[in-house]
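Lay summary. Proteins are chains of building blocks that fold into shapes, and those shapes determine what they do. In this project we predict the shape from the chain. Here is one chain we studied, written as its sequence of building blocks.
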Amino acid sequence: MSVLSAHPMPDPSGLRAEAGAALWWLGQAGFVVAQGGLRIVIDPYLSDSLAEKYRGKPYDHRRMMPPPVAPDKLTGIDWLLCTHGHTDHMDPGTIPPLLQANPGARVLVPRAEARRAVERGVPTARLVLIDAGETVDLGGVRCTATPAAHEEMVRTEAGYLHLGYVLAGGGVTLWHSGDTIPWQGQAEWLAPFRVDLALLPVNGRDERRAANGVPGNLTLTEAVALADSIGARGMLAHHFGLFDFNTIDPAQGRRDLAVLPHRVETAFAEPFIAFRVAPAARAALSVLMVCKGNICRSPTAEGCLAAQLPDLHVDSAAIMDWNVGRAPHEVTQAVAGARGIRLGSRRARQIETADFHRFDLVLGMDQDNMHALKALRPADARAVVGWLGAYLEPGRVQEIADPWGKDRAAFEAVFDQINAATAGLARLIGANRH
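And here is the predicted shape, written in a compact code that computers can read:
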């Protein structure tokens, strides 16, 4: 079943979605989104403020395409979302007239960019702040912020400077990544949301642009690989066609895509087109924890996640067959039991090929686990294979070392690490339940 359908629409005033979602491209990274009974605008740049700022400079920021709609003609808007503070995403030439035309609209921005948002024309009474891992209920759509690396992942005392937004509502889940390049743990962070449509910037990056203060984004190849790695149903490529120094040719992109291996349904954003995302029924999320022997780390991870989300389908398994039928290690049981997690009824089993079709997430603990899991995963599997340690800190994957043969303190340290990682995963899973 196709994820996307496209239909001509001369302006976004009639954009609606009784089920699923509908999108209308504003150019660059900007979209109008109809979802869950709301009309949401993301990252609109509908002025010439950058051309005025950079007039006479090597990168003069003259538009390749005119604004497809004036900001004061975008009406019926409930929310304005800005992923970060760059002017083509948080535009002082767009924000004031858009908000004046929509007196009930509220504005969601990264907590680290609160001051800049006010400087760009957002009244403090209408400002809502968010940071990576947090969720805000927009009233029919739940918005969860994901970290982004543009080209670096920057965290201040107030939070991350660059974010993406997962929008879950109307029976579908959209992910606008914000401006980003690949970062460690990215697939793990997004996989629990089971994204229907990923909105990804494909203008790439190079040393010339970086040297002139223009941080880059994903290449088309990276974007397709990312969409596949998170198990997205579809991908809509954007962030091109506005500035001649920071774009790709979509016609060439389509030719490249024709020979680029990928599974995800992919389209390029086009002006004056309404893209509609159809909902699709899915079974409840399921998670499989894996370690080498299934008597220490993976049963601990299974027990911790099951305690945090009792109705989740979670299991554990081993790479090797050494311990099949055995109960978890006695010290593992003792450490978990002291913290209220009972593991005694678990019996070790070895992972099977069918597990990659039965589970949505298959999570390993260390490098050896990951090598084995990627080698075992069938090409047509639905499971996303990743690191449990990716949920400890955005942008950094941590190994969870095998405590077998070590003292109790090592088992306690591993339990604490696993408990923290599963708590991070549980927050992401919980954010997507709608």
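What the prediction tells us: Residues 286-431 form a domain with the Rossmann fold fold (CATH 3.40.50.2300).
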